Amino acid sequence: MSGSRAAVRYAKAVLTLAKDQNAADAVNADMKSITETIAQSTELDQMLQSPVVRSSDKKVVLTKVFNDANVNTYNLIDTLIANKRLALLDDVAQSYNQQYDQMRDSQIAKVTTAVPLTEDLKTAVLAKVKELTGKSAEIENIVDESIIGGFILRVGDIQYNASIANKLEKLKREFTLN
Predict the structure, then answer these.
(1) What is the pLDDT of residues 69-121, one digit of tens each?
(2) pLDDT per residue as tens digits for the range 151-164
(3) What is the pLDDT of residue 2?
(4) Going from the N-terminus, what domains does the chain have, and what CATH number goes with each?
(5) Which end of the chain is flanked by fewer CB atoms within 10 Å, N or C?
(6) What pLDDT score was predicted for residue 75?
(7) Neighbours of 158 (CB within 10 A)
(8) Which helix (H) or strand (E) segment is 57 a member of?
(9) CA 71, CA 60: separation in Å to the nearest integer?
(10) Which helix H or strand E contains 137, and what residues bound it?
(11) Is 52 a residue whose pLDDT tops 50?
(12) What is the pLDDT of residue 135?
């Protein structure tokens, strides 16, 4: 994250304000929408980063794209425009989501599998994450056929790789060393 210290400060301020107004959940949904939309649209990201595009034009685009956002989200956009920091919008949104999860004592568990997870497996993974970390989690399933089978679980700083591709790589290393 470029300018991450500033992004963290903006996110903290918005979270504090949203909590005071009982709108933290709605703003969190807006922030997730912002990060997903920017990740999917290189044009939007380039427009936000561009010093050539006027701030008023950026604001018009953002209000049309996020037309049902919470008042606090619009106020954040206005503040970032006023402070000439709109390029930080994606970083602020990501930081807000992280701080919101910490506030709720929750986290994101990224599970990479060769095929999409079933509901039974999601339940088992959530139970394992709760057992390992003591915190609840949301599952983000990433499908990557290159792992062949098994799964890779990432929660915060913890990674557990039980993929077939990883086991094959370990075998390959063993045979090349001997």
Answers:
(1) 999 999 999 999 999 999 999 999 999 998 998 888 888 889 999 899 999 88
(2) 888 887 788 888 88
(3) 44
(4) 4-102 (1.10.520.20), 106-177 (no CATH)
(5) C
(6) 95
(7) 11
(8) helix 55-65
(9) 15
(10) strand 136-143
(11) yes
(12) 82
Task: Give the separation between CA 14 and CA 96, rounded to whole angstroms.
Answer: 8
Residue 1 pLDDT? 42
Distance CA 34, CA 93 (A): 7
Residues 6+ apart with CB under 8 A from 93: 11, 30, 31, 32, 34, 35, 38
**Three-class secondary structure assignment of the chain:** CCCHHHHHHHHHHHHHHHHHCCCHHHHHHHHHHHHHHHHHCHHHHHHHHCCCCCHHHHHHHHHHHCCCCCHHHHHHHHHHHHCCCHHHHHHHHHHHHHHHHHHCCEEEEEEEECCCCCHHHHHHHHHHHHHHHCCEEEEEEEECHHHCCCEEEEECCEEEECCHHHHHHHHHHHHHHC
pLDDT band at 178 (very low <50, low <70, confident <90, very high): low
**Six-digit token pair at 153?**
């679980």
